[in-house]
Specification:
alpha/beta, 5-stranded parallel beta sheet, 7 helices, 38% helix, 16% strand, globular, binds magnesium ion
C-alpha cells in the first residue's frame, strides 16, 4: 500500500539550476536562488494532484537536500526559504524535510512506514532514484502519471 509520495525540490519542482549564479550565491550563504527559482510545472495542476493525494490519505512529503556546504544554522534558513517557495506557489504537502546535502533519502522517511507500506519518490537525480528502496522511484517527467504507480502496484 502506498503511504506517501515524496517530492524532491531542486530540479524537480523548482528550476533552481536556471537561476543565474545560483551555485555561487548558495556557496556564499545567499539562499535567495531557492526563492527566485521558477516552477518546473504548472503549479495549479500540481496543486490539484497533491490535493487529490492528500484527500486519498496519501502523505505528500518534500525531501530536499540543503545547500552543499551549509551549516546546521544555514540549513534552518534554507528550510524557511524553501517553505516560502512552496507557499508562494500553493503546493499542498504534509511534511517538509530539508536534510544535509548527500543524505540517503529513503532513510529520512523509512521510520514512518509500516511493514506493508511503500513510498514513491519523484526526483530528477538518477543516483537518488536508484538509491530509493522503499517503493517506486520516478522522474519528474512522469509526475502526472503518479496514479499509475499508486493504483497499479501494491
Ligand atoms: Mg534534485
Amino acid at each position: 500500500m502506498v503511504r506517501m509520495v515524496c517530492f524532491d525540490m531542486d530540479g524537480t519542482l523548482a528550476n533552481l539550476y536556471n537561476v543565474p549564479d545560483w551555485e555561487k550565491k548558495l556557496n556564499m550563504g545567499d539562499f535567495t536562488p531557492y526563492l527566485d527559482a521558477e516552477p518546473m510545472f504548472n503549479m495549479s495542476h500540481l496543486a490539484q494532484l497533491t490535493k487529490t493525494l492528500i484527500e486519498s490519505n496519501i502523505e505528500v512529503r518534500i525531501i530536499s537536500w540543503s545547500a552543499m556546504h551549509a551549516t546546521t544554522t544555514q540549513t534552518k534558513i534554507v528550510k524557511m526559504v524553501k517553505k516560502a517557495w512552496l507557499e508562494k506557489y500553493g503546493f499542498n504537502y504534509t511534511n517538509l524535510h530539508v536534510v544535509k546535502y548527500g543524505t540517503t533519502k529513503s532513510k529520512v522517511i523509512r521510520k514512518y512506514l509500516s511493514e506493508n507500506e511503500t513510498a514513491i519518490l519523484v526526483d530528477d537525480n538518477e543516483k537518488i532514484l536508484n538509491g530509493w528502496n522503499v517503493g517506486a522511484a520516478i522522474k519528474p517527467e512522469e509526475i502526472f502519471e503518479l496514479e499509475k504507480y499508486i493504483c497499479g502496484k501494491p
